[in-house]
Amino acid sequence: QVQLVESGGGLVQAGGSLRLSCVASGKFKSINAMGWYRQTPGKQRELVAHITSSDSTNYADSVKGRFTISRDNAKNTVYLQMNSLKPEDTAVYYCNANVRTILGLSYDYWGQGTQVTVSS
Question: In terms of Cα–Cα distance, which of 84, 107, 83 is closest to 96?
Answer without folding.
Answer: 107
